[in-house]
Design goal:
Helix content is about 90%, strand content about 0%. The chain is built from 1 helix and no strands.
Length: about 160
């Protein structure tokens, strides 16, 4: 066993420069390559996650604005509908008032026409009564007036 330990010690002594060289190489690469690379990767990860977070925030902001715009559009539509309803009701009330005015005017024209017809009927009745009385007088006079004899002058007898 002594010989094995001596050989192991001798092998260990031969590997010390290699171990030191590997440790030096590891420290050198770590300082000049791995640390800057890990910093760059960390910065990239932060930038990526920051960009993603910013994109998410912008998406949320965009959704909020979209909801606000939709609410504003809906409010504008309701306002337009209200204006239309007001204009429609105003036009309907104006139409109704014009119709009522036209009805009143038509009724007054009908009443005037009826009054005119009644006056004309009364005047026609008076005219007819006068004509009837005149004709009655003439008829009465012709019945009760003496008749010329038959065969009077100018008449030829057969």
């Amino acid at each position: 066993m002594g010989q094995i330990t001596t050989q192991l010690g001798h092998l260990f002594a031969q590997t010390i420069p290699t171990v030191v060289f590997v440790l030096f190489l590891l420290a050198f690469l770590n300082r000049l390559f791995f640390k800057p690379l890990s910093k760059t990767l960390d910065a990239r990860a932060k930038a990526t996650s920051g960009a993603l977070a910013e994109a998410r925030q912008q998406a949320v902001t965009a959704e909020e604005r979209l909801r606000e715009y939709e609410k504003a559009i809906q409010a504008a539509r309701q306002e337009i509908y209200r204006f239309r309803q007001e204009a429609r009701s105003k036009a309907l009330s104006e139409r109704d008032s014009r119709l009522q005015e036209a009805r009143r005017h038509a009724e007054s024209m009908v009443k005037d026409a009826q009054a005119g017809l009644e006056k004309e009927a009364a005047m026609a009745e008076i005219t007819l009564r006068t004509a009837v009385e005149s004709l009655a007088g003439e008829v009465t006079q012709s019945f009760f007036a003496p008749h010329p004899p038959e065969g009077g002058p100018g008449e030829v007898q057969a």
